[in-house]
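Lecture 7 notes: from sequence to structure.

We start with a single chain of 100 residues. Read the sequence below before looking at the structure.
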Amino acid sequence: MIKHIVFWRLKDFAEGTAKQENAQKVKTMLEEMRGKIPGMLKLEVGLDFERSESASDIALYTEFDTRASLDAYQSHPLHMKVKEFLPLVRTERRVVDYEV
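Now the structure, written as tokens:
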């Protein structure tokens, strides 16, 4: 099994919208992928409520059956939609991919 975890920090204001609204939009876009990506076994999206200096704003946790499924996800149209929007509203991205 492959685990793919991503954290984002968002700009305070971007695309005419405040951070919390953009965070909710990203969450919705990510959750639209649930059950629609071949090989994706699990998808969770969390929005940070602490808002501490060291926190990220959004966390994505996904599980895939194989590395090939993770690779295919990278170019899936639903994922591409998110990948096009996020650079407009984020300041930072961190990712970890590992196999268990």
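Helices lie at 19-31, 67-74, 77-89. Keep this in mind for problem set 3.
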